[in-house]
Specification:
Layout lengths: L1 E6 L8 H12 L3 E6 L8 E4 L2 E5 L5 H14 L3 H13 L4 E5 L5 H10 L3 E6 L3 H9 L6 H9 L2 H15 L2 E4 L2 H9 L7 E3 L6 H5 L5 H7 L4 E5 L8 H14 L4 E5 L5 H10 L6 E5 L3 H10 L2 E4 L13 H8 L4 E4 L2 H7 L6 E3 L4 H13 L1 H17 L3 H20 L1
Parallel strand pairs: 1-2, 1-5, 2-4, 5-6, 6-7, 7-8, 9-10, 9-12, 10-11, 12-13, 13-14
Antiparallel strand pairs: 3-4
Length: 408
């Protein structure tokens, strides 16, 4: 069957979750189309890894304003609905797979419903709390003030999630804790499944490593942060911890892989803390290079604020760290507390204050045998309990059920 994956509002490639799910569906014999937003350097139509990429531009500025007003009152937009209907018809799409709750996501669901397509809603994030946190994290502008104090942004995204999921034939979440939240939001439990952000251990293990990177960064104890540089990731707190760590371990070095809206602020803060010699910004790199930086590091960080957004999702990079058998410092979000019950696999900290991060880092560096034991447990969990091979089976079964219902 022809499957259209909708990523409007996002760019593709890359998207690690979309690519893993698409691989499973291609192995089943399905043809995959990906509808996403355009980039200047990318053509409108493209082919990537046997997937046809269709890039639709945002409407004209006036239409964009009208669409935004329509979206924040109803959840859908006429412009996107009509554009997506044309894509569905032109490509003979039978199953629509919508990723997240983008501006065009509900419009795509409405278009598919009218054309009798089967619909999968794939919820990567807890958007209600994610957007609430977003508008409370940045300096006030008229738009920020409006969504922070006037418009009920959390209630709207709860409404949009419920509205979209109820119209879908199947709903996917990334973690059990998110599944529980969606059920509480009024979605029928029987059509919700969990497909985690795990890694296929065999594929990940077969990724090559760059020995120059490993040689460069493994000469000294190196902490690694990988991710978007924004106010949700806790990277500011890691940077603030560096003087405290260096007071006990003067050889410690922090490597930051990624880019984002607060990179300039972070660089300024590194300078003001006088730790420029201890912190390196690598920038955004190809995913295939990330593994080399993980392998080269002594420990890895994921120290976000603990809130409802973090309690209802889990990052791909955690499983990548685990497969590379690295000690990890994590804030104690609900998914990690649950995973820790299998066996201890990380340093769980109760907050992301610089003092807490520094203490955990020094404990890890000064007790290598204990750190290695946790790292081995992490690797074992990633291979035996949290492997995408199992999640892929769940996706296959869901699609078999959809196809059976379509043909019956």
């Amino acid at each position: 069957m022809n499957v259209l994956m909708v990523l409007l509002g996002g760019y593709f490639p890359p998207d690690i979750r979309v690519e893993k799910e698409a691989k499973v569906l291609k192995e089943m014999g399905h043809s995959i189309f990906v509808l996403c937003s355009p980039r200047k350097e990318k053509q409108e139509l493209d082919v990537y890894d046997d997937m046809r990429i269709i890039r639709l531009d945002y409407p004209h500025k006036i239409l964009r304003l009208v669409d935004a007003l329509h979206f924040y009152t109803n959840g859908g937009t006429f412009t996107w609905k009509n554009k997506i209907k044309k894509v569905i018809k032109d490509n003979g799409v039978q199953i629509l797979h919508v990723h997240d709750l983008s501006l065009a996501g509900y419009s795509a669901i409405c278009a598919a419903k009218e054309l009798n397509c089967r619909i999968v809603q794939d919820l990567h994030e807890n958007w209600a709390d994610n957007m609430l946190a977003y508008y409370h994290s940045y300096k006030p502008t008229p738009k920020i003030v409006f969504f922070r104090y006037i418009y009920p942004i959390k209630g709207f995204y709860n409404y949009l999630e419920r509205k979209s999921a109820r119209r879908a034939d199947a709903v996917i979440t990334t973690i059990e804790e998110m599944r529980e939240r969606v059920v509480r939001n009024g979605v029928e439990e029987s059509k919700i499944m969990v497909i985690r952000n795990t890694e296929d251990s065999k594929s990940f293990d077969n990724l090559p490593v760059d020995h120059e990177i490993i040689q460069k960064y493994s000469k000294q104890p190196t902490g690694l942060f990988v991710g978007v540089l924004d106010r949700f990731r806790g990277i500011e707190c890691v940077i603030e911890s560096i003087p405290l760590i260096r007071a006990k371990r003067s050889d410690f070095h922090l490597v930051i892989v990624g880019d984002g809206p607060i990179k300039g602020e972070l660089e300024t803060r590194v300078t003001s803390l006088r730790v420029s010699d201890a912190v390196e910004f690598v920038g955004k790199i190809d995913f295939k290079k990330v593994k080399s930086y993980i392998v080269a590091s002594a420990l890895c960080y994921l120290t976000q604020d603990i809130n409802e957004q973090i309690n209802r999702t889990i990052a791909h990079k955690v499983f990548q760290y685990m497969l590379c058998e690295k000690p990890i410092i994590l804030t104690a979000a609900l998914p990690y507390i649950r995973m820790q019950k299998y066996r201890p696999f990380c340093y769980l900290i109760q907050n992301n204050l610089p003092e807490t991060i520094a203490a955990a880092t020094i404990t890890c560096l000064n007790n290598p045998e204990d750190a290695q034991k946790l790292a081995k447990n992490a690797r074992s969990l990633a291979v035996n309990e949290f492997d995408f091979a199992e999640d892929g089976k769940i996706l296959r079964n869901a699609y078999k059920k959809l196809i059976s219902n379509t043909l019956s």
